[in-house]
Task: inverse folding
C-alpha cells in the first residue's frame, strides 16, 4: 500500500462521525416534523378537490386518478364478508364532494355531493367495493385515455355488483398509467380543464376507430383530437368491449 | 441505487417513511463530510440538520434527477460554503483548531467521533478550503473528479491539482499518524 492509498484509507475510515442516540432521534424528529404528517393525503386531496369530480385514488400504487370516475346509485347493502379494512368518512371539501379514506390511509375516494344521500351507506359500499376489487370481481366497462402533450392519462371504468344487487361504476387509474409528480399535475391540470370544456362543446376532430385487446378482451376505441389555446394537442380516446357493440 | 430511486419517488409523493429512511441512510456520511469541511461538530450538526429540514420541506418541488447521495452532499457543501463565507463561527472554529483532544465518546456529546477523526478534521482545516473540499468529497463522499469539478465550477485538472496538493499537505501534517496505519 503506497502513501496515497494509506492516506485515503485513513481519511475514509477515520473521518467518521455519527450522532449520539439522543441526537439521532432529535434530528430525525425535527426533519420529519418539517416534512409534516400525512402529506401524501393532503396533496392527493388537493388534486381531487380541484377536479371536483368523483374519483378513486389508489395511493398504494401512488397514482392519482386522471379523470372521470363516477359513483352511481346508492341504497342499502350488506357486507360481503371479505376483510379488507375499513373506510372512514373524512368530510366534505369546498366543492361539496364527499371524501372517504381507507383505514391504512392508502386509498382516497371522493364522491359527488349530489350522488350521496347516505354517507354511512356510501362508506360501507366502499368497503364492499374494496373487497370485490381485491377479488377482481368487477367488469371493465370502458377504457379512457388522454394524451396531453407528453403526458398520458389512462383510466379504467369498472362496474361493481354489490351483494344487494345494486351496481356501482368506478373510474380508476390503469395499472400501466405513468406516475406523475405533483408538479407535473400542476403543469397539465389547467390544460385538462380546458380540454374538458372543448370536449363538452364538441370541438374534437374525429380520428376514426381502432381495436386493441384489454384484459383479454378486444376493445374498440374511438379517437378524437383537440387543440388547446396554447397550441397543445390532445388526443383523447375511449374504448368499449367490441362484443357489446 | 435502485433503493434510492424508489426512495426519491416515494419521498416526492410525500412519504414520511421514505424520508426517515433517507435520513437513516445518509445522516452519518453527511455529518462526516460536514465535519471534514468545518472541523466543528456543532456546526456540522447544524448544517446537516438544515440540509435535511430543507430537503423535507421541499418534497413536492424537488427536481432531482441524479444521485440522491450526491444531491445531499452538494446541499451540505453549499451550506458549508455559506457558513465559511459568512464566517459566522470563525471564533468557534479557531477554538476548535486549538483545542486539545478530549474524550471523543463522552456521553454528553451530540455527535460521536474518534480521536483520530478529530485529528483528521483539524488537519483538513489547515488546507485551503477548495483543497479540503476536493479531498473530503473524493474520499469520504466517493465523488469523481468530474463531479467535484462541476460542483466547484472549475476544470477537472484544477480539481485534480487541488486534490493532489491537499493530499500532499495532509500527508505531511499526518505523517506520524500514518505510520501507525497498516
Result:
Amino acid at each position: 500500500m503506497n502513501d496515497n492509498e494509506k492516506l485515503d484509507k485513513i481519511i475514509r475510515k477515520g473521518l467518521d462521525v455519527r450522532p449520539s442516540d439522543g441526537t439521532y432521534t432529535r434530528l430525525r424528529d425535527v426533519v420529519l416534523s418539517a416534512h409534516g404528517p400525512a402529506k401524501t393525503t393532503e396533496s392527493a386531496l388537493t388534486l381531487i378537490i380541484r377536479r371536483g369530480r368523483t374519483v378513486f385514488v389508489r395511493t398504494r400504487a401512488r397514482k392519482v386518478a386522471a379523470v372521470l370516475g363516477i359513483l352511481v346509485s346508492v341504497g342499502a347493502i350488506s357486507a360481503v364478508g371479505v376483510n379488507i379494512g375499513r373506510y372512514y368518512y373524512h368530510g366534505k371539501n369546498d366543492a361539496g364532494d364527499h371524501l372517504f379514506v381507507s383505514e391504512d390511509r392508502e386509498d382516497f375516494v371522493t364522491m359527488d355531493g349530489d350522488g350521496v344521500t347516505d354517507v354511512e351507506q356510501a362508506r360501507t359500499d366502499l368497503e364492499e367495493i374494496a373487497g370485490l376489487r381485491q377479488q377482481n370481481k368487477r367488469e371493465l366497462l370502458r377504457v379512457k385515455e388522454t394524451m396531453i402533450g407528453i403526458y398520458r392519462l389512462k383510466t379504467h371504468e369498472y362496474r361493481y355488483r354489490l351483494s344487494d344487487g345494486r351496481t356501482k361504476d368506478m373510474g380508476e387509474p390503469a395499472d400501466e398509467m405513468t406516475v406523475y409528480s405533483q408538479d407535473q399535475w400542476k403543469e397539465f391540470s389547467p390544460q385538462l380543464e380546458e380540454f374538458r370544456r372543448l370536449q363538452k362543446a364538441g370541438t374534437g376532430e374525429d380520428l376514426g376507430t381502432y381495436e386493441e385487446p384489454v384484459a383479454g378482451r378486444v376493445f374498440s376505441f374511438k379517437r378524437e383530437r383537440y387543440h388547446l389555446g396554447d397550441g397543445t394537442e390532445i388526443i383523447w380516446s375511449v374504448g368499449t368491449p367490441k362484443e357489446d357493440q | 441505487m435502485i433503493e434510492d430511486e424508489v426512495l426519491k419517488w416515494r419521498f416526492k409523493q410525500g412519504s414520511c417513511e421514505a424520508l426517515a429512511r433517507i435520513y437513516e441512510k445518509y445522516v452519518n456520511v453527511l455529518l462526516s463530510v460536514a465535519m471534514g469541511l468545518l472541523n466543528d461538530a456543532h456546526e456540522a450538526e447544524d448544517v446537516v440538520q438544515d440540509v435535511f429540514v430543507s430537503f423535507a420541506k421541499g418534497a413536492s418541488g424537488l427536481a432531482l434527477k441524479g444521485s440522491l447521495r450526491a444531491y445531499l452532499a452538494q446541499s451540505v457543501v453549499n451550506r458549508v460554503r455559506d457558513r465559511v463565507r459568512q464566517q459566522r463561527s470563525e471564533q468557534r472554529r479557531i477554538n476548535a483548531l486549538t483545542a486539545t483532544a478530549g474524550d471523543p465518546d463522552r456521553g454528553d456529546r451530540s455527535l460521536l467521533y474518534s480521536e483520530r477523526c478529530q485529528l483528521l478534521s483539524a488537519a483538513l482545516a489547515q488546507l485551503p478550503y477548495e483543497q479540503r473540499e476536493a479531498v473530503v468529497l473524493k474520499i469520504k463522499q466517493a465523488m469523481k473528479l468530474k463531479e467535484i469539478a462541476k460542483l466547484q465550477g472549475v476544470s477537472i485538472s484544477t480539481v485534480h491539482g487541488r486534490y493532489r496538493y491537499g493530499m500532499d499537505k495532509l500527508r505531511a501534517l499526518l505523517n506520524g499518524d500514518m505510520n501507525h496505519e497498516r
Q: What stands out?
A: Chain A has one domain: 36-244. Chain A is about 30% helix and 30% strand.
